[in-house]
Amino acid sequence: MSRMLKIMCGGWVLVGAGLVQAQGVLVVVNPGQRVRLPRPIVRPLPAPPVESYAIGELDIHVKLTDQIARVGVSQTFENTGSRTLEASFMFPLPYDGAIDQLTLMVDGKEFTGRLLAADEARRRYEEIVRKNRDPALLEWMGTGMYQTSVFPIPPGQSRTVSLRYTQVCPKDSGLTELLFPMSTAKYTSKPIKKLTIEVAVESSVPLKNIYSPTHAIEIERPSNRVAIARFSAKEIVPENDFHLFYDVGSEAVGVSMLSYRPDESEPGYFLLLATPEIEAKATQRAAKTVVFVVDRSGSMSGEKIEQAREALKFVLNNLREGDLFNIIAYDTDIEAFRPELQRFDESSRAAALGFVAGIHAGGSTNIDGALNTALAQLKASGRPSYVLFLTDGIPTAGEVNEAKIVDHVHKANRVRARIFAFGLGFDVNSRLLDKLVRVNYGESEYVRPDEDIEDRVSQLYRRIESPVMSNVRISFEFDGLTPEEGNPISRMYPREIYDLFEGKQMVVVGRYRKPGAVKIHIAGDVAGNEQRFDFVAELTKESDDSGYVFIEKLWASRRIGEIIDAIDLHGDNEELVKELVDLSTKHGILTPYTSFLADETVNFRDTDGNATTTRGNLEMLEETSGRAAFAQRKFKATLQKQEQLFGVQLNGAQFDVSRLNRAGKVLEGVDEMPSAPNTLRNIGGKSFYRRQGQWIDAAVDDEQQRTAIAIVQFSDEYFALAAKHGGKLSQYLVFDEPVIVELHGQAYRVDPPSEP
After folding, report:
1. Nearest to 626 by CA among 480, 446, 504, 386
2. What pLDDT shows up at residue 651?
3. CATH fold for the domain made of 3-245
4. What confidence tens digit (pLDDT) does each residue in 292-348 have?
5. E strands present in 117-267
6. Which conformational region is residue 209 in: left (phi greater than 0), alpha (psi within -120 to 50 degrees), or beta?
7. How confident is the model at residue 649, as a pLDDT?
8. Under a CB-based contact definition with an 8 Å cutoff, are residues 396 and 365 in contact?
9. How far apart are CA 138 and CA 131, in angstroms?
């Protein structure tokens, strides 16, 4: 007997007795047949049966002109079972009523379909939910739906489904937003083989900021009016819908601000984007100074020194006329390419390449002497200066005391040069590197033994090669602000912005206490002259939905990174440890020191007890070298520079403290951070912890849990509640087990019904 199925965007599903792999969720609508969507694995599932339905690739192409997006989606479905599948395609719409001209092709043949408005789509969703006793489809209630006629997929054959539609993208605070629904794919027990997203943005006005809060996109800018954003991944489970924002403007610096304030009684969160001109005028490009300090000690022999030489060549071949440079090579002794800075030209480049070819490994590691030699060459000139510092070990020659090295280097840095440190391999003193860059306006990068040094250095240099504005200052001006009110802006990260680079985007997050209009002032040195740019933005009084919840999540990620950094460099204190535990618990961002929260036996509300455990785990930061030290500082740096939700959440990027012994040494064979625990789930703006067979919203306190309103899944009250709050609540009701969730100060306990 044939099965009539409906294909919805995203996931795996059981078809009869078969486990089905698909970007589309297959929902059986035959009378008497119940098929539930798969879930993230909490308990072991049976082995996949022979009958299955698979998808290879998901390819998304978008052409975005002004606010009009023309979207093309291609998926290839293959029936790997033994029976013909009769299927139709259902697609949850990104925005209510914003789509037209939608067509769907199956192997080149157009299939008819119709758009269902939100109310009609909600009734259709409810029918499927009631029939299959499956809450997962509730997530898309409140949006429209597209549904096609039925088409067959014979056994062993495939059908390529191509979906094309046009939509009007909304605009807020000057930013146009593109949304493509992909979070449906989290209902999967295996990843999609290949995901490709490409968005071409065209504008009649120069493009400024282009930003995705969900995916780490690569941006190509062929001109100041055209940009191409790309994301690709293999073996991936998309946890988030794809969001992209962009704005336009003719100013030399483009600035946009978004804000999110879920509770009017608490400070809100803001995200500020700033991008200079894509192609700055030659007169605005500041000449710069670059000094390369490269380790040539004995431990650098072999492939390391070869890659370091290639990194040096890359920088030398990408300097510009007017730049000053030098090279310092060090082991026990210090050797400079030239006694003083050299002006870059073809002659000095050729000579420098010859010096690089003669760098060979041998000797000890005199970090103090090398950095002081480099900084002594820098003179106050109004131009930005950068020191690219490579080391693969700990100081063993000259001054070896960590605190004294940091003090010496800071005093020698009289021109506020930015030091970028590259720690190569596990044997570096990672805490020393972090201290050096924190007091010298830079960043630390950690390069694993199996990573290419040249690639990492070239990525950093590409980012900083064209400074447009240096010594950047950002300030905020509020109308009617009294001195007694103090500064409404707090905990802004990064804490200091030193430079803006040509075509590179600055992403700043922070908190605010005063809503309403705010003037943003960005000042700095442009080609030796101070310039100031002024912008006006609006900070929301209270957010009526969770559309911008990513701002709070990004802020929390960076704040956690800053807390760990402060404890690492200056020692812990009670307030910082408590805040680390609170933020980690609320936002479900586990760290090496709070990963015990994933243990079902741990009371996540026991703040004092959990702070005590965390303080004990923080002793691991005493390790300065080795794999544990390397992993901890790399994890910390990732949080501090986080720009996308993708990676903030538990997508296999968390560090499991249980795999370390009490001395902080990594156990044998453990190099990578393991997969996320199945006792913690981050959905929308909430974190849920699995305790005693139920999922509990981290925002629910003991009293709310005791007085929660009880509702049974699939009852009239259940659907009435989902309809009242729409997707804001429905996304939290996807659990098979009981769930306790808070919404607008009221807690609800939703229990699965008794089996008939």
Report:
1. 446
2. 31
3. Immunoglobulin-like (2.60.40)
4. 999 999 888 888 898 899 999 999 999 998 899 999 999 999 999 999 999 999 999
5. 145-148, 151-153, 158-168, 171-172, 175-180, 192-202, 207-211, 218-223, 226-236, 242-248, 253-260
6. beta
7. 39
8. yes
9. 13
CA distances from 386 to 176, 227, 418 (A): 35, 29, 5
**pLDDT tens per residue, range 680-696:** 888 878 899 999 999 99
Amino acid at 77: F
At 362, give phi and psi (nearest 5°). 165, 140
From the list 644, 636, 446, 647, the residue with the least C-alpha distance to 560 is 636
Gap between the Cα atoms of 588 and 597, Å rounded: 9
Q: What is the spatial distance between Cα 389 and Cα 410, in angstroms, rounded to a whole number?
A: 15
Rounded CA-CA distance 735/161 in Å is: 30
What are the Cα distances from residue 13, in Å, to 49, 54, 160? 12, 11, 19
Model pLDDT, residue 660: 43
What integer pLDDT is reported at residue 190 of this predicted model? 57
Distance CA 158, CA 629 (A): 50
pLDDT of residue 668: 34
Helix axes 430-438, 627-640, angle to 10 degrees: 30
Give the Cα separation of 391 and 584 in Å (integer): 33
Note the residue count of the chain. 756
pLDDT for position 648: 40
Looking up tokens 């997203």, which residue turns up? 197
Tell me, what DSSP letter sits at residue 660?
B
Contacts of residues 625-628 at CB distance under 8 Å and 24 or more positions apart, as own/partner, are 625/394, 625/426, 625/427, 625/428, 625/429, 625/430, 626/426, 626/427, 626/664, 626/665, 626/666, 627/426, 627/665, 627/666, 627/670, 627/671, 628/660, 628/664, 628/665, 628/666
| Cβ-based neighbour number of residue 84 at 10 Å | 14
563 Cβ neighbours under 8 A, 6+ residues apart: 576, 579, 580, 583
pLDDT of 314 reads 93
CATH topology of domain 287-465: Rossmann fold (3.40.50)
For residue 531, the number of C-alpha atoms closer than 13 Å in the C-beta half-sphere is: 15
Fold of 253-282+468-539: Immunoglobulin-like (2.60.40)
Compute how many other C-beta atoms are within 10 angstroms of the C-beta atom of residue 430.
29
571/581 Cα distance (integer angstroms) = 16
The angle formed by the CA atoms of residues 534, 535 and 540, to the nearest 5 degrees, is 145
DSSP secondary structure string for all residues of 79-131: E-SSS-EEEEEEEE-SSTT-EEEEEEEETTEEE-EEEE-HHHHHHHHHHHHHH
Cβ(656)–Cβ(663) below 8 Å: no
Tell me what percent of the chain is helix, strand and coil, each rounded to the nearest 5: 25, 35, 40
**What pLDDT is recorded for position 627?**
85
Question: Could you tell me if 436 and 464 are in contact, meaning their C-beta atoms sit under 8 angstroms apart?
Answer: no
- Burial of 296 by CB count in 10 Å (0-12 exposed, 13-18 middle, 19+ buried)? buried
Residue 239's alpha-carbon distances to 26, 188, 192, in angstroms, are 18, 10, 12
Low-confidence ranges of the chain (pLDDT < 50): 1-30, 40-52, 97, 189, 647-676
| Displacement of CA 447 from its chain's centroid (Å) | 19
Among 146, 139, 147, CA closest to 241: 139
The pairing of beta strand 324-330 with beta strand 253-260: unpaired
pLDDT of the residue at 564: 95
Give CA–CA dist 705/699, Å, rounded: 10
Q: Judge whether 99 and 115 are in contact, CB under 8 Å.
A: yes
pLDDT at 702: 92
Q: Please indicate whether the domains covering 3-245 and 253-282+468-539 agree at the CATH topology level.
A: yes
Angstrom distance (rounded) from CA 34 to CA 130:
10
Written as six digits, the tokens of 199 are: 């968005």
Domain spans, the chain: 3-245, 253-282+468-539, 287-465, 549-678, 692-751
